[in-house]
Write a structure and sequence with these properties.
about 75% helix, mainly alpha, about 140 residues
């Protein structure tokens, strides 16, 4: 008699949990970029675009709002609660707190402001997600 082959391995609960967490992170990044590009294009089409070179503070704030709208729409669609949604949106604005004074003092320029703020968003988004790990990695929504 031939032995029965072992059942196919199934991912562990922990593996599924971290996969779900990673998927949520990617979804937030995609939603952020969709909001930034779609709303930015709309603003440009109606003549409301702001120059990053002439007014980096305002340009960044508008971009942060655009990214936040994209993420908030997707998060609410996916069933996330308002506190988690607002924390994720805050990750778009927190980087400017130390950067604006550096810009105003002439230590950095608008390009560095945009670069550093955008790079800082990603770990801040992760921090917001780790704060509510069960919501992002589990089935709490």
């Amino acid at each position: 008699m031939t032995p029965t082959p072992p059942a196919p391995a199934t991912p562990s609960a922990a593996g599924r949990r971290w996969s779900k967490f990673a998927l949520h992170y990617v979804e937030m990044i995609v939603a952020m970029f969709v909001g930034m590009f779609a709303l930015g294009a709309l603003q440009s089409a109606v003549g409301l675009s702001v120059s990053h070179d002439e007014s980096p503070e305002l340009a960044y704030l508008i971009m942060a709002v655009d990214m936040s709208v994209g993420m908030a729409v997707w998060m609410r669609f996916r069933g996330h609660r308002w506190p988690a949604t607002l924390e994720m949106c805050a990750a778009m604005f927190v980087p400017i707190v130390p950067l604006y004074p550096l810009l105003w003092l002439g230590v950095i320029d608008g390009g560095v402001l945009m670069l550093v703020a955008h790079v800082a968003m990603f770990p801040l988004m992760l921090a917001a997600m780790f704060r509510r790990l069960d919501e992002y990695a589990g089935c709490a929504h």
